[in-house]
């Protein structure tokens, strides 16, 4: 047992650090920069049944300590992800968490059933929280009954554990968390982006072509920490926390609040080496806290 | 090979109104080619958060120095413009695919067309072309005289013509007006500038080989975030290209303009 290792349903993690979905493509760009086997896991970009071209540009806008994005789930579609993207990642010793998105329950079921058979896909992450598509996505993530039914449907077909990615754009995230747990979810990943808008100084109109975008980056960390803290108290399934993580201290914070592992999103765009850098920094942080193994700090906020 | 390096500021000066010339020293200069860009983090804090993509204007491999020219207009570039000699700057690069210098035939002539802050990468390109014995003709458009730069530098490399929107320098109008007047003879053209300029050029020289360098709002700069997507024309197999990692330079006709 190494100091940083974590065991979660379906996931044997060398360390609790993984790039978040949508912030790492399908790994190739980063695989050219460092050995992806260093990572705890990789959450690949959302996959839908069909090819999606995404939203018009501009798709991103910088904000105070953060950014808005409205990419619109651009991806090559299930078949190409299965045939070319996932096989590329097989050369690395790293479990893949496949982010699954769709417009209908049938879409989610189809992608889940097929992608969960890929040899390196060790878990699914149901994306019921994308704020940037007109249909599907977040509509599944804001109603506890619909969320539960979707999880139940996917659980019937998936060959690997199912995690559900929650949206912060709800009145009560705990209610949704409990609903997906009741539906059989093996874990929760949280949070997706917060819906926001930035206006052009000259025209007064939204900068992003889609109008709204999802806010991410250091600006959202306090919201994410609060939500992980609340959900940890309410459910018995593990949480993979995320939202504005840029360094090892952020990881300690998320795990203290109740996360068993931590995903790094926007920071990958600022510093492509951020994940391996955090992994390297973690042992010194644990030393400072007088902690032998990292799993000892999970949920320490609640003690 | 993309690397991250804390480069050292060797020189920085304002060469035209709000236009800065910044020279950085570091080992990643060895990997740079004309038309590529660097992704600069102007502050170690979260303000601003994202890097700034800036094209490379001059590469000096002997001295390990690269020069970028940028307009200090937004928050990030204003912070960058305050860097002093000796300061460190966090640079990711070199990024993207540059201009294909070899596309110009031996002993031939290349037309370089630039608009505003799209002119800088053409300087390194012009030097690289001249080094191969290719004649270069430079046709550059700017908004006004006070934002024009590098007239002397380009003039030593080949015929150089300026056009300004308000007529304060050179001909009044756009680069296409000047090209119409000059009717230059050339084998291949290279261009960098605003989209309307690139669009006009494509239509202007339908029979010529040409390469266009694009700009789009970027996130990561390495092809992972899908922010800087451009639709492709029907002539290509792909549905889209990423300006940062597939470009920023594309052969004429690839991107839907």
From TrEMBL, chain A:
<feature type="binding site">
    <location>
        <begin position="45"/>
        <end position="46"/>
    </location>
    <ligand>
        <name>FMN</name>
    </ligand>
</feature>
<comment type="similarity">
    <text>Belongs to the dihydroorotate dehydrogenase family. Type 1 subfamily.</text>
</comment>
<feature type="binding site">
    <location>
        <position position="191"/>
    </location>
    <ligand>
        <name>FMN</name>
    </ligand>
</feature>
<feature type="binding site">
    <location>
        <position position="217"/>
    </location>
    <ligand>
        <name>FMN</name>
    </ligand>
</feature>
<dbReference type="InterPro" id="IPR049622">
    <property type="entry name" value="Dihydroorotate_DH_I"/>
</dbReference>
<feature type="active site" description="Nucleophile">
    <location>
        <position position="130"/>
    </location>
</feature>
<comment type="pathway">
    <text>Pyrimidine metabolism; UMP biosynthesis via de novo pathway; orotate from (S)-dihydroorotate (NAD(+) route): step 1/1.</text>
</comment>
<dbReference type="InterPro" id="IPR012135">
    <property type="entry name" value="Dihydroorotate_DH_1_2"/>
</dbReference>
<feature type="binding site">
    <location>
        <position position="127"/>
    </location>
    <ligand>
        <name>FMN</name>
    </ligand>
</feature>
<protein>
    <recommendedName>
        <fullName>Dihydroorotate dehydrogenase</fullName>
        <ecNumber>1.3.-.-</ecNumber>
    </recommendedName>
</protein>
<keyword id="KW-0665">Pyrimidine biosynthesis</keyword>
<feature type="binding site">
    <location>
        <position position="127"/>
    </location>
    <ligand>
        <name>substrate</name>
    </ligand>
</feature>
<feature type="binding site">
    <location>
        <position position="21"/>
    </location>
    <ligand>
        <name>FMN</name>
    </ligand>
</feature>
<dbReference type="InterPro" id="IPR050074">
    <property type="entry name" value="DHO_dehydrogenase"/>
</dbReference>
<feature type="binding site">
    <location>
        <position position="45"/>
    </location>
    <ligand>
        <name>substrate</name>
    </ligand>
</feature>
<dbReference type="InterPro" id="IPR033888">
    <property type="entry name" value="DHOD_1B"/>
</dbReference>
<comment type="subunit">
    <text>Heterotetramer of 2 PyrK and 2 PyrD type B subunits.</text>
</comment>
<feature type="binding site">
    <location>
        <position position="165"/>
    </location>
    <ligand>
        <name>FMN</name>
    </ligand>
</feature>
<dbReference type="InterPro" id="IPR005720">
    <property type="entry name" value="Dihydroorotate_DH_cat"/>
</dbReference>
<dbReference type="InterPro" id="IPR013785">
    <property type="entry name" value="Aldolase_TIM"/>
</dbReference>
<feature type="domain" description="Dihydroorotate dehydrogenase catalytic">
    <location>
        <begin position="4"/>
        <end position="286"/>
    </location>
</feature>
<keyword id="KW-0560">Oxidoreductase</keyword>
Automatic annotation (TrEMBL), chain B:
<comment type="subunit">
    <text>Heterotetramer of 2 PyrK and 2 PyrD type B subunits.</text>
</comment>
<keyword id="KW-0274">FAD</keyword>
<dbReference type="InterPro" id="IPR001433">
    <property type="entry name" value="OxRdtase_FAD/NAD-bd"/>
</dbReference>
<comment type="similarity">
    <text>Belongs to the PyrK family.</text>
</comment>
<dbReference type="InterPro" id="IPR017927">
    <property type="entry name" value="FAD-bd_FR_type"/>
</dbReference>
<feature type="binding site">
    <location>
        <position position="220"/>
    </location>
    <ligand>
        <name>[2Fe-2S] cluster</name>
    </ligand>
</feature>
<dbReference type="InterPro" id="IPR039261">
    <property type="entry name" value="FNR_nucleotide-bd"/>
</dbReference>
<comment type="function">
    <text>Responsible for channeling the electrons from the oxidation of dihydroorotate from the FMN redox center in the PyrD type B subunit to the ultimate electron acceptor NAD(+).</text>
</comment>
<feature type="binding site">
    <location>
        <position position="244"/>
    </location>
    <ligand>
        <name>[2Fe-2S] cluster</name>
    </ligand>
</feature>
<keyword id="KW-0001">2Fe-2S</keyword>
<keyword id="KW-0665">Pyrimidine biosynthesis</keyword>
<comment type="pathway">
    <text>Pyrimidine metabolism; UMP biosynthesis via de novo pathway; orotate from (S)-dihydroorotate (NAD(+) route): step 1/1.</text>
</comment>
<keyword id="KW-0479">Metal-binding</keyword>
<feature type="binding site">
    <location>
        <position position="228"/>
    </location>
    <ligand>
        <name>[2Fe-2S] cluster</name>
    </ligand>
</feature>
<dbReference type="InterPro" id="IPR023455">
    <property type="entry name" value="Dihydroorotate_DHASE_ETsu"/>
</dbReference>
<dbReference type="InterPro" id="IPR017938">
    <property type="entry name" value="Riboflavin_synthase-like_b-brl"/>
</dbReference>
<feature type="domain" description="FAD-binding FR-type">
    <location>
        <begin position="2"/>
        <end position="101"/>
    </location>
</feature>
<dbReference type="InterPro" id="IPR037117">
    <property type="entry name" value="Dihydroorotate_DH_ele_sf"/>
</dbReference>
<keyword id="KW-0813">Transport</keyword>
<dbReference type="InterPro" id="IPR050353">
    <property type="entry name" value="PyrK_electron_transfer"/>
</dbReference>
<dbReference type="Pfam" id="PF00175">
    <property type="entry name" value="NAD_binding_1"/>
</dbReference>
<dbReference type="Pfam" id="PF10418">
    <property type="entry name" value="DHODB_Fe-S_bind"/>
</dbReference>
């Amino acid at each position: 047992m190494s100091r940083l290792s974590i065991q979660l349903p379906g996931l044997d993690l060398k360390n609790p650090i993984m790039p978040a979905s949508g912030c790492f493509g399908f790994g190739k760009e980063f695989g050219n920069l460092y050995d992806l086997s260093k990572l705890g896991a990789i959450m690949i970009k959302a996959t839908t049944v069909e090819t999606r071209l995404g939203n018009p540009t501009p798709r991103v806008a910088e904000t105070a300590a953060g950014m808005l994005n409205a990419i619109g789930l651009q991806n090559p579609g299930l078949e190409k992800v299965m045939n070319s993207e996932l096989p590329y990642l097989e050369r690395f010793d790293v479990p893949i968490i496949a982010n699954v998105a769709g417009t209908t329950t049938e879409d989610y079921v189809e992608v889940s059933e097929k992608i969960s058979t890929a040899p390196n896909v060790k878990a699914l992450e149901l994306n019921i929280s994308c704020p940037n598509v007109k249909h599907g996505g977040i509509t599944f993530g804001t109603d506890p009954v619909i969320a539960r039914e979707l999880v139940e449907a996917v659980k019937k077909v998936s060959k690997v554990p199912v995690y559900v990615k929650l949206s912060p754009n709800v009145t009560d995230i705990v209610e949704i968390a409990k609903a997906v747990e009741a539906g059989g979810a093996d874990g929760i990943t949280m949070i997706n982006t917060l819906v926001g808008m930035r206006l052009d100084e000259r025209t007064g109109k939204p900068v992003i072509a889609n109008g709204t975008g999802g806010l991410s980056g250091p600006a959202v960390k306090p919201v994410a920490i609060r939500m992980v803290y609340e959900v940890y108290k309410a459910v018995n399934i593990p949480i993979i926390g995320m939202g504005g993580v840029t360094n090892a201290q952020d990881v300690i914070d998320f795990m203290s609040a109740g996360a068993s592992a931590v995903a790094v999103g926007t920071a990958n765009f600022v510093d492509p080496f951020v994940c391996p850098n955090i992994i390297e920094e973690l042992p010194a942080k644990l030393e400072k806290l007088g902690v032998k193994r990292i799993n000892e700090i999970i949920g320490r906020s609640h003690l | 090979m993309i690397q991250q390096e804390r480069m050292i500021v060797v020189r920085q000066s304002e060469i035209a109104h709000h236009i800065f010339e910044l020279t950085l020293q570091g080992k990643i200069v060895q990997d740079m080619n004309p038309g590529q860009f660097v992704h600069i983090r102007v502050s170690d804090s979260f303000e601003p958060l994202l890097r700034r993509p800036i094209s490379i204007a001059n590469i000096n491999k002997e001295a390990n120095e690269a020069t970028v020219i940028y307009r200090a207009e937004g928050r990030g570039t204003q912070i960058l413009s305050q860097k002093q000699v000796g300061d460190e700057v966090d640079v990711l690069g070199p990024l993207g695919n540059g201009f294909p210098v070899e596309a110009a035939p031996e002993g031939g002539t290349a037309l370089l067309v630039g608009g505003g802050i799209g002119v800088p990468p053409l300087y390194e390109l012009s030097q690289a072309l001249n080094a191969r014995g290719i004649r270069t003709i430079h046709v550059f458009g700017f908004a006004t005289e006070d934002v024009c730069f590098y007239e002397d530098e380009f003039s030593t490399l080949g015929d150089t013509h300026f056009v300004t929107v308000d007529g304060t320098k050179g001909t009044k109008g756009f680069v296409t007006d000047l090209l119409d007047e000059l009717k230059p003879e050339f084998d291949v053209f290279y261009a960098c500038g605003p989209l309307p300029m690139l669009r006009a050029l494509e239509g202007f020289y339908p029979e010529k080989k040409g390469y266009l360098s694009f700009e789009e709002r970027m996130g990561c700069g390495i092809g992972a975030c899908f922010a800087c997507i451009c639709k492709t024309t029907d002539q290509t197999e792909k549905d889209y290209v990423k300006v940062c990692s597939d470009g920023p330079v594309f052969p004429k006709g690839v991107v839907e303009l």
